Amino acid sequence: MKIQEKHTIQTGWQLKQKFVCLTCGKRYRYDKGLSRHIRFECGKDPQFKCTYCPYEAKRKEHLKTHIINKHPGLISQSEFFTLKSASKVLKHLYH
Protein backbone atom coordinates (compact mmCIF):
# COMPACT_ATOMS: atom_id res chain seq x y z
CA MET A 1 0.00 0.00 0.00
CA LYS A 2 1.36 3.38 -1.02
CA ILE A 3 1.08 6.43 1.15
CA GLN A 4 0.78 9.64 -0.80
CA GLU A 5 1.94 12.93 0.57
CA LYS A 6 -0.35 15.84 0.00
CA HIS A 7 1.31 18.83 -1.59
CA THR A 8 -0.28 22.20 -1.94
CA ILE A 9 0.32 23.78 -5.29
CA GLN A 10 -0.19 27.51 -5.27
CA THR A 11 -1.82 29.05 -8.29
CA GLY A 12 -0.73 32.38 -9.76
CA TRP A 13 -3.64 34.08 -7.99
CA GLN A 14 -2.63 32.66 -4.60
CA LEU A 15 0.94 33.84 -5.09
CA LYS A 16 -0.36 37.38 -5.63
CA GLN A 17 -2.30 37.28 -2.36
CA LYS A 18 0.48 38.40 -0.06
CA PHE A 19 -1.53 39.80 2.85
CA VAL A 20 -2.50 37.01 5.25
CA CYS A 21 -4.74 37.18 8.32
CA LEU A 22 -2.75 35.84 11.27
CA THR A 23 -5.96 34.70 12.99
CA CYS A 24 -7.69 32.63 10.29
CA GLY A 25 -5.19 32.40 7.42
CA LYS A 26 -7.42 34.10 4.85
CA ARG A 27 -5.34 35.74 2.11
CA TYR A 28 -5.78 39.08 0.36
CA ARG A 29 -4.14 40.68 -2.62
CA TYR A 30 -4.23 44.17 -1.12
CA ASP A 31 -3.65 45.42 2.42
CA LYS A 32 -7.03 47.22 2.33
CA GLY A 33 -8.80 43.89 1.92
CA LEU A 34 -7.00 42.42 4.92
CA SER A 35 -7.69 45.53 7.02
CA ARG A 36 -11.40 45.37 6.16
CA HIS A 37 -11.47 41.64 6.95
CA ILE A 38 -9.87 42.18 10.37
CA ARG A 39 -12.11 45.14 11.22
CA PHE A 40 -15.47 43.71 10.13
CA GLU A 41 -15.29 39.96 9.62
CA CYS A 42 -12.62 37.85 11.33
CA GLY A 43 -13.98 36.18 14.46
CA LYS A 44 -17.10 38.35 14.49
CA ASP A 45 -20.71 37.20 14.40
CA PRO A 46 -22.90 38.37 11.51
CA GLN A 47 -24.74 41.53 12.51
CA PHE A 48 -26.91 42.11 9.44
CA LYS A 49 -29.97 39.86 9.08
CA CYS A 50 -32.18 39.44 6.03
CA THR A 51 -35.82 40.25 6.77
CA TYR A 52 -36.98 37.71 4.16
CA CYS A 53 -34.96 34.58 5.05
CA PRO A 54 -32.45 33.24 7.62
CA TYR A 55 -29.43 34.71 5.76
CA GLU A 56 -27.00 36.71 7.90
CA ALA A 57 -24.03 38.80 6.78
CA LYS A 58 -21.07 40.35 8.49
CA ARG A 59 -21.09 43.34 6.15
CA LYS A 60 -24.01 45.54 5.11
CA GLU A 61 -23.07 45.54 1.41
CA HIS A 62 -23.19 41.72 1.39
CA LEU A 63 -26.73 41.80 2.77
CA LYS A 64 -27.77 44.38 0.15
CA THR A 65 -26.33 42.23 -2.64
CA HIS A 66 -28.12 39.18 -1.21
CA ILE A 67 -31.49 40.97 -1.11
CA ILE A 68 -31.09 42.27 -4.68
CA ASN A 69 -30.15 38.82 -6.01
CA LYS A 70 -32.35 36.52 -3.93
CA HIS A 71 -35.46 38.58 -3.15
CA PRO A 72 -36.00 41.04 -6.02
CA GLY A 73 -39.76 40.39 -6.12
CA LEU A 74 -40.23 41.06 -2.42
CA ILE A 75 -38.97 44.64 -2.35
CA SER A 76 -40.53 47.72 -3.90
CA GLN A 77 -38.97 49.36 -6.96
CA SER A 78 -37.76 52.34 -4.94
CA GLU A 79 -36.14 50.03 -2.36
CA PHE A 80 -34.58 48.01 -5.19
CA PHE A 81 -32.99 51.04 -6.80
CA THR A 82 -31.87 52.42 -3.43
CA LEU A 83 -30.20 49.10 -2.59
CA LYS A 84 -28.74 48.74 -6.08
CA SER A 85 -27.23 52.23 -6.16
CA ALA A 86 -25.94 51.90 -2.58
CA SER A 87 -24.28 48.59 -3.48
CA LYS A 88 -22.59 50.19 -6.50
CA VAL A 89 -21.33 53.10 -4.42
CA LEU A 90 -19.99 50.76 -1.73
CA LYS A 91 -18.39 48.53 -4.34
CA HIS A 92 -16.54 51.49 -5.89
CA LEU A 93 -15.43 52.79 -2.49
CA TYR A 94 -13.71 49.52 -1.68
CA HIS A 95 -12.19 48.71 -5.09
TrEMBL record:
SUPFAM superfamilies: beta-beta-alpha zinc fingers. Keywords: Metal-binding, Zinc, Zinc-finger. Gene3D superfamilies: Classic Zinc Finger. It holds the Pfam family zf-C2H2_7th_ZNF462. Signal peptide: none annotated. GO terms for molecular function: zinc ion binding. It comes from the Eukaryota. Coiled coil: none annotated. Residues 19-46 form the C2H2-type domain. Transmembrane segments: none annotated. InterPro entries: Znf-C2H2_7th_ZNF462, Znf_C2H2_sf, Znf_C2H2_type. This is C2H2-type domain-containing protein. The lineage of its organism: Eukaryota, Metazoa, Ecdysozoa, Arthropoda, Hexapoda.
